[in-house]
Each structure stands twice: as structure tokens, then as C-alpha cells.
Amino acid sequence: MALFITRLLELASITSLLKRTTSIRIDFPVILANLTGCKMMSPKQLADFGYKAFSASMMLLTVYGGFLCSARAYRYFQHRGVLRQAAEEQKPQSILQD
């Protein structure tokens, strides 16, 4: 319990120190970018990337929806042909002679 209180007081003193000094600023995205070695993206670049990613996903969904629709139409016409052929085989021979 004493260790917890000690850590809590250390944290409180650090935060009060950070609030008083304006020269120390912790910017986590910049630190993360520096650690990973990549450049920071500007907000415009991030928005452009998000727009392009969203547009690409919508295009893929449209193509996939077209594929599903055409596959269903193909199965429908195949099934209709099979039903038509089965119905013709069940007709009596007298009707077919006329």
C-alpha cells in the first residue's frame, strides 16, 4: 500500500511539474513516429488516405455485389431451363403430336 501511495505522489509531482513548465511537451504521435522511423502524416494526407481507402472498399463491394447478382441470375436461368425440360418430358404424347 505504501508503494502505491509513493508511486501516486511521484506521478502527481511529475504532472504538476509538466503543468508548470511549458517547454516540456509530450506529443505521443511524434514520439511514436520517431521510434518507428516513419514520417508523420499531415492531417490532409491522412484524410486523403482515408478517402482513398474508403473509395477502394466501396468499389470492391460494388464489384462483389455485381458478381453475386450475376451468379444468382445464371443459377435462376439454369434452374428455369431444367424445370422447363422436366415439364416437357411429363407431357402426354398426344399433345405433342398436334
Write the layout of secondary structure elements.
Layout: H1 2-20, H2 28-36, H3 43-89, H4 93-97
Keywords: Membrane, Mitochondrion, Transmembrane, Transmembrane helix
Transmembrane segments: 49-74
Protein name: Cytochrome c oxidase assembly factor COX14
Count of the separate structural domains: 2
Kindly provide the radius of gyration, computed on alpha-carbon positions and rounded to a whole number of angstroms.
35 Å
**Overall helicity:** over 70%
Helix/strand class: mainly alpha
Number of helices: 4
Mean pLDDT: 77
Distance between the termini: 102 Å
The main pleated sheet reads as: none
User: Which shape, going by the Cα principal axes?
Assistant: elongated
Note the beta-strand portion. Answer: under 5%
Give the topology string: H per helix, E per strand: HHHH
Q: List low-pLDDT spans.
A: none
The count of β-strands is 0
Write a concise synopsis of the structure shown.
The chain has 98 residues and is mainly alpha-helical.
Overall description:
This protein has 98 residues and is mainly alpha-helical. The protein has two domains: 1-40, no CATH class; 41-91. Helices cover 82% and strands 0% of the residues. It contains four helices and no strands. The longest helix is centred in the last third of the chain and has 47 residues, at 43-89. The chain is elongated, with a radius of gyration of 35 Å. The mean pLDDT is 77. Keywords: Membrane, Mitochondrion, Transmembrane, Transmembrane helix.
